[in-house]
Amino acid sequence: MQELISKVFITIIICLVLLLTQVTFNSLSKSFAQLGNGDAHHTLLIRPVQFGPLSELSSSQKAASTTKACTLTSNSTRLNGTPQQIEGPYFVDDMPNRSDIRSDTSDGSVQEGIPLRLIIHVYDVNDGSCVPLRGAKVDIWHTDSQGIYSGVKAMGTLKKNFLRGSQITDDKGAVEFSTIYPGWYEGRAIHIHDKVRTFNGTETALEWTSQLYFNNSMNQQVHKQAPYSNHGPPQTTNEEDVVYSGASADGLIKKDSGEKLIVNLTNNDSGYVGEFNIVLNVE
């Protein structure tokens, strides 16, 4: 009888082990299935990182850069040519022509975050003068407060367009966007992508692409506040970012090209106002 009881006990133990193994396997399967279904916050762990040059700039794109300086006739301020940086893998063309890019046109949702009013002035160097570039198309795109881009399949946002948009420069060469302070993701400093283009009919006549950055201390300060604090403090400083610290994509600056791409940021009642001058060469 004692031998029979022992056999039954061993059988019960084996069954329990098998049952727990099956439950664990099912839980893991569900977790991986969630990753495959595009849960945005999980896919942060598996998405590509924008390291290194992804493609060589064409000769016409390189020609849009300049090392020359120019003077603003209105206040005698002297500006230098602005370096280009890589476009990265997340550019999506034909985004809405709009000033306020916080909403998503697919469902009307609005991104939460600290408001940022971004003003960009675009100039052409002409005989030492900074001439406003009128009628140029300026695109910007960046992540939400949790480091997620819209329009990216791997992030589950393929049909979304939040925090993307374009504007046409006015007679002063200026555009203005209402957005939020960007978030961070693994391997990169906090940044905003920007692209300037002019067209001759349907053909691109000029294309200039770069990225904009913010002061490290400001990045840390912002991410202590909700909703950024849900994602934690930024992991990569400007100086640790290979794009920021590397050469410009146009080859004119050999290292630390990001130092020339810091947004001038000031406080306002509800958030921040950022201004940046882009100086390029229109052939």
At a glance:
With 283 residues, the chain is an alpha+beta fold.
Describe the structure.
This protein has 4 helices and 11 strands; from the N terminus they run ααβββββββββααββ. The strands form 3 sheets. Strands 3, 4, 7, 10 and 11 form a 5-stranded mixed β-sheet that branches. Strands 6-5-8-9 form a 4-stranded antiparallel β-sheet.
**CATH topology (fold) name of the largest domain:** Protocatechuate 3,4-Dioxygenase, subunit A
- Structural class determined from secondary elements: alpha+beta
How far the N terminus sits from the C terminus, by CA atoms, comes to 99 Å
Overall mean pLDDT stands at 87
The level 1 CATH classification of the largest domain is Mainly Beta
Helix content: 10-25%
CATH superfamily of the largest domain: Aromatic compound dioxygenase
Count of DSSP strands: 11
Question: Rg to the nearest angstrom?
Answer: 25 Å
Task: Compile the SSE list and pairings.
Layout lengths: L1 H35 L22 H5 L5 E3 L6 E3 L34 E12 L2 E4 L4 E5 L22 E5 L5 E7 L10 E10 L2 E11 L2 H7 L19 H4 L18 E4 L4 E9 L3
Parallel strand pairs: 3-11
Antiparallel strand pairs: 1-2, 3-4, 3-7, 5-6, 5-8, 8-9, 10-11
What distinguishing features does this structure have?
283 residues; Protocatechuate 3,4-Dioxygenase, subunit A; five-stranded mixed beta sheet; four-stranded antiparallel beta sheet; globular
